[in-house]
Backbone:
């Protein structure tokens, strides 16, 4: 299996997980993954990343950063594997921390 194939599969699974967690956004996620949405996808990803960097402002949040990176990784193949791997590791770490907090 080529490295790009692994990143592609992870990215598809991340989008599927996002669609399950936020069903109201599933239509948006399906639309943003379509090839003809590329002209909108790149500026949207940059705006989300910039908004995530300014998460100290009231409406903007850190949630925008990983979403922007995932959307950007759709078009930049070299980002697919690192972005999807990092997000998956963070999700595992967060789940472990949540279990530890619940035990207290």
Residues:
């Amino acid at each position: 299996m080529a490295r790009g194939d692994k990143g592609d599969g992870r990215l598809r699974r991340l989008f599927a997980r996002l669609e399950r967690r936020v069903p109201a956004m599933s239509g948006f996620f399906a639309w943003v993954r379509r090839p003809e949405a590329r002209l909108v996808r790149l500026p949207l990803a940059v705006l989300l990343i910039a908004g995530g960097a300014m998460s100290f402002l009231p409406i903007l949040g850190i949630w925008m950063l990983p979403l922007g990176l995932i959307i950007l990784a759709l078009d930049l193949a070299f980002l697919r594997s690192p972005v999807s791997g990092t997000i998956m590791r963070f999700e595992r770490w967060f789940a472990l921390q949540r279990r530890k907090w619940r035990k207290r």
The helical segments are 3-21, 26-33, 38-53, 64-73, 77-103. The mean pLDDT is 86. Residues 77-103 form the longest helix (27 residues). The chain has five helices and no strands.
